[in-house]
Amino acid sequence: MLRFLTAGESHGPALTAIVEGMIAGLPITREYINEQLARRQGGYGRGGRMKIEKDQVRFLSGVRGGRTTGSPITLQIVNKDWDNWSDIMAPGPEAHLHERVVTRPRPGHADLSGAIKYRHEDIRNVLERSSARETAARVAVGTLARCLLEELGVEIVGFVRRIGSVEAVIEEDLGTSELQKRTARSQLLCPDPQAEEAMVKEIDRARENGDSLGGIFEIRAYGVPVGLGSHVHWDRKLDSRLAGAVMGIQAIKGVEIGMGFGTAAVPGSQVHDEIYYSPDRGFYRNTNRAGGIEGGMSNGEPVVVRAAMKPIPTLYKPLLSVDLKTREPFEASVERSDVCAVPAACVVGEAVVAWELACAMMEKFGGDSLEEIKERVSQWRQLVRQV
């Protein structure tokens, strides 16, 4: 069974993740993970923190000679901004606890609820961990899972469908390769150049108005074999697990699989995917409204997950709040902030989807080495075609 844990604060010395259960023999390099970390930091509309950090991963255990060993993998991403915060964030009694104390909760953040829940007088104890900075660790972990999926013939592609009021037009017959090329060329990870141009203008207007923008991103997984997940328990359903993982990304407020919310507006004849059969393909569908998942299980079609990200709540046009200590009203403080972080969230979305699919693959096929699981997946794919 695969599992992971992340630790670290936004202005602490480092972010750390430990991955347990990864098979032995999986090829992995720092460069590949760093490439995904760089994608997370990119995108038009990002804030000042991205100019400070240039995320680089270090392997502290579990990888030798460019391959996993089967033992727990420790990943570390150093925070360069730690040098400016070492006195305030120090773990020992030498910490300057009375400097830069935060008592003013920001609307839309974890600040107030977290301070009440954990009885913190300094909200910094909440915001340091609730920060989306933590997602860098999840991208590193998800890239390990992505490497495993690629070895097993599964490909992950993410792109931005919408920012603010601008929605991209994506051709239904657009091939995987072309979709990846167009997305890679875009500073907003949007495969529609005309839409991207309009998105940039909308972001500029939001910046001028001291505001922020959210949007929608989509993750597609190609080559997912039939039978991942299960119908027998709610917590084993693949769509349930994917939705939970994507909803766990900071600022995500809605998740849908396939047609998702659109299925509520049309009759069943326009929702369900008819089933066909041919000797060379086996069972297949000509449409994919279900997003590759039926009854909590993958059905062999591409898995499609879509998420709605709310606008970043830290605004340069401050919102009203109330001081935790004095109970006096105030305008929320302005710190470094993104105007739009939807492309970054998309990269995180790719990572968490990859992780959940890798977990489902390991649960179904098992094995302790890459060779073992590859053989089992190959045999299963052949069996499915013969059903």
Automatic annotation (TrEMBL):
InterPro entries assigned: Chorismate_synth, Chorismate_synth_AroC_sf, Chorismate_synthase_CS
Class of this enzyme: lyase
GO molecular function, one term: chorismate synthase activity
UniProt cross-references to SUPFAM superfamilies, sorted A to Z: Chorismate synthase, AroC (SSF103263)
Pathway field: Metabolic intermediate biosynthesis; chorismate biosynthesis; chorismate from D-erythrose 4-phosphate and phosphoenolpyruvate: step 7/7
UniProt keyword terms in alphabetical order: Amino-acid biosynthesis, Aromatic amino acid biosynthesis, FAD, Flavoprotein, FMN, Lyase, NADP
Gene Ontology process terms (BP): amino acid biosynthetic process; aromatic amino acid family biosynthetic process; chorismate biosynthetic process
PROSITE patterns: CHORISMATE_SYNTHASE_2 (PS00788), CHORISMATE_SYNTHASE_3 (PS00789)
Subunit and interaction comment: Homotetramer.
Protein function: This reaction introduces a second double bond into the aromatic ring system.
Name used for this protein in its record: Chorismate synthase
Taxonomic source organism: Desulforamulus putei DSM 12395
Lineage, broadest ranks: Bacteria, Bacillati, Bacillota, Clostridia, Eubacteriales
Encoding gene (name): aroC
